[in-house]
From TrEMBL:
Gene Ontology molecular function, alphabetical: 2'-deoxyadenosine deaminase activity; adenosine deaminase activity; zinc ion binding
UniProt-listed HAMAP family: A_deaminase
Gene that this sequence comes from: add
Upper taxonomic lineage: Bacteria, Bacillati, Actinomycetota, Actinomycetes, Streptosporangiales
Positions of Zn(2+) binding: 19, 21, 203, 294
Reaction(s) catalysed by this chain's protein: 2'-deoxyadenosine + H2O + H(+) = 2'-deoxyinosine + NH4(+); adenosine + H2O + H(+) = inosine + NH4(+)
A GO BP entry: nucleotide metabolic process
Family label: Belongs to the metallo-dependent hydrolases superfamily. Adenosine and AMP deaminases family. Adenosine deaminase subfamily.
Protein name: Adenosine deaminase
Amino acid sequence: MSDRPTLDDIRRAPKVLLHDHLDGGVRPATIVDLARETGYGDLPTMDADNLRTWFTEASNSGSLERYLETFSHTVGVMQSAEALSRVAYECAEDLAKDGVVYAEVRYAPEQHVSAGLTLEQVVEAVLDGFARGRREHGIRVGALVTAMRHQARSMEIAELAVRYRDAGVVGFDIAGAEAGYPPTRHLDAFEYLQRENAHFTIHAGEGFGLPSIWQAIQWCGADRLGHGVRIIDDIEVDGGTPRLGRLADYVRDKRIPLEMCPTSNIQTGAAKSIEEHPIGLLRRLSFRVTVNTDNRLMSGTTLSEEFAKLVDAFGYGWDDLQWFTVNAMKSAFAPFTDRLELINGVIKPGFAQLKWSGARPLA
């Protein structure tokens, strides 16, 4: 093993994933199979390899319309309990093969009811798939149920999160276009979740700036920020010395986790390149940064590949990768005892073995 972690090395490391969309990580072959089974006829191609290429090209086109079209196809074939359970199981299997030991995967139940499923049936089908994944592959997967911020069903989805929190739903999220749809539109749902002692994260600071982050934290009480990239706008670097604004200082002081997704952030224009991604500065300033995939299909990525890109861009070593991973496990919505068990019993020993398995200790 070399001093710098390679992709193959990183795949062996026990990793934690907090921001991954179920409909953004479907296998192309599964999309084709489900399209044939359900009669879904809108796919651009029925060849799995060509379909993978189409998803990648559409996601990197710079066109928001084409990017959003990709999700219409994955959601389009995920309208039955059998399809949802299959996709959830395969998600768990794929993450386990990449070395992920704990994941929180999100999806919007309201987007999977067009063929007659109830919201409850959607949730139960996904939980069934995740449960099979744990039994067969050992990975722990918690579900985050998501409400779409441009719709008006957030209270229903929040109630689902509370109803199924002892069955595998670990929290709530809102997603969708930030501009024009501030999180405060769903304040009743967030207040309900707080009264019920439930966890929630909010997509903020990706497509919109500091006001989105400020509202998510100060008005809505978010436990975590989905992306949160634009917090960099509240940090000035003058002569090499960073100066934090009031909001950035608060986010760091309160240890509010940032669910950053480097490749996806570049695709959506939230960052220019991996080398220029705010994660580098935020890591140096000790923000509670976590590394995530967002949409594995659209971004053509895995969590190991996201880490490998950061290693290449910033020269990170095993200590840095462990720091990101422990951050993620600390920030998970799993019970404290489960987090502690994974940190002390799986993550730290796993990284220690990798770190010391070379010819000499890694710096």
